[in-house]
Amino acid sequence: MAGLALDGSNPDVSLLYDINGLAKDAPHWFDRVMEFVGEFGIVIGLVLVAFGAWWSVRKRPQEAPSAVAGLIWAPLAAGLALMANIPIRGIVQRPRPFKDHQGLDVLVAGKTDYSFVSDHATLTMAIAVGVFMAHRAFGVGAIALALFEGFCRVYMGVHYPTDVIGGFALGTAVTLLLAPLAMMLLTPLTTAIAGSRAGWLVRDGRAARAVGAAGGEGRPEEMPERRAPGGQRGSKDLAA
User: Fold this and answer.
1) Could you identify which of 55, 101, 114, 126 might form a hypothetical disulfide with 89, taking C-beta atoms 3.0 to 4.6 angstroms apart as the criterion?
2) Domain count, the chain
């Protein structure tokens, strides 16, 4: 993939120059902000979004264990996706765009590894899809952050657009395809934690009391029978 054309016939390269060209026209301080956001900021933002999703799903009396299991799966899926990317990079061996194309404004120096697929795009989308599985509203925000991460990587001149698209596809595929097995293993764990002293990690106090009031499994507790005068049990004649 090293011999990509620069004459606009290759949309991947044309889009690279169009997006990276924004960095040339932007003030220096803005480029520094985009550098931080693209390298670290969005990942930090995703952690905060996942924390917000965790705080929210704990308030669901019955669904909390499975939702928390989904949030645990999100970073695990991201780690597996990054591991899967190692052989992909070794097979494709696509150089960074600034090594084959002149005139790019590269905001991050020292990138010597291969370009396809983007680790940042893979990581952020895997986490975003995992959050979406657990909480739709927070998940939409997480996916928006992941998409912006992809834009940042091209803006910074360190990835082609197709590197980003490939990362999005890899992160999504690993998260969704392995989710049934992951949930089968993680949900019993979070359910057990919910019933332990560390139950606050899975359910907040109000949700835990709601489950307890339902008999632990959603069954109403039996009301004790009251004794009528004379020693006989008689809950039916309490209204007499």
Assistant:
1) 114
2) 1
